[in-house]
Amino acid sequence: MFDRLAKQAEILENTWVTHLLGLLPCDVAQLIAREPDEIANDYNEVKKILLKRYKLTPEKFSQKFFMHKNLGSTWKNFAYELRSFFNEWVNGVKAHSFEKLSDLIITDQIKRKVSQEVKDYFIVDWSKLNSSDDLVEKLDDYDTLRSTFRSKQPRKEWHYDKQNSFKDDSAFTTNERKKLYGIAHNERGDPKCVNCSNFVHIARNCSLPKSVLTCRECNETGHKARN
Question: What Gene Ontology terms describe what this protein does at the molecular function level (predicted)?
Fold first, then answer.
């Protein structure tokens, strides 16, 4: 942005550093002033120091280029801002030929397809991977390593638990469980009275008198004859 304003104001390029230092915070201006004269008076060298100071890496300029929005500015200014971000990105990775530029764009597209998990794995070198050949080699190695690791993991053994098998079997319905424990119900789930054989109530709530056991051998009540 400073470059553009300086050109619009027709400021001589060999005085850009002087004008720029007056716009910077004191601590940053002093940082530049401590550099050797051949660096402190060279606008491009000063620019490199500022970019490093504010951590504006080529990767950062790439993000700004693709994510920048026109927030109320003119389209002309917006185009200039995009061009500035693009140039800083390309110059930062020294993509000065068509082949290098095309490879840079292809590499960026590949990076956008990679999951966050993989990005985190390569977090230290991610911003430095600007070659598609280097990037895909690392990604393929990562996939191979992950597949190998997964194949070596021991499989969990499965044990049949007879006691809890009915609990985990979704096909074993509620009515089947009730039959297992000797409880009779109809399709709606109503209990069956063992006294009158009707549904809806159980024996203790039955209005009919309970049947009395009678022995067929001695005609006494309370027990029955054994076969």
Answer: nucleic acid binding; zinc ion binding
pLDDT at residue 39 in the model: 87
* Alpha-carbon distances, residue 118 vs 60, 61, 126, 165 (angstroms): 19, 22, 10, 41
Amino acid identity for residue 88 in this structure:
E
Mean pLDDT of 92-101: 90
Q: What confidence tens digit (pLDDT) does each residue in 15-42 have?
A: 888 888 877 778 778 888 888 888 888 8
Buried b (16+ CB within 10 A) or exposed e, 84-97: bbbebbbebbebee
- Work out the end-to-end distance of the chain between its first and last CA atoms, rounded to an integer number of angstroms: 109
In 3-state terms, what secondary structure has residue 199? strand
Q: Kindly report, residue by residue over 185-207, the tens digit of the pLDDT.
A: 666 667 777 767 777 677 777 77
Residue 138 to residues 19, 60, 143, 196, Cα–Cα distance (Å): 45, 22, 9, 79
- The H-assigned helical ranges of the chain are 2-8, 16-21, 26-33, 37-40, 43-53, 58-67, 75-92, 98-113, 116-121, 132-152, 165-168, 174-180
Three-state SS letters, 127-182: HHCCCHHHHHHHHHHHHHHHHHHHHHCCCCCCCCCCCCHHHHCCCCCHHHHHHHCC
Q: For residue 16, how many other CB atoms are within 10 A of its CB? A: 20
Q: How far apart are CA 199 and CA 192, in angstroms?
A: 4
For residues 26 and 36, give the distance between their C-alpha atoms in angstroms, rounded to a whole number.
18
Q: Which residue, among 20, 12, 6, has the nearest Cα to 50 in the 3D structure? A: 20
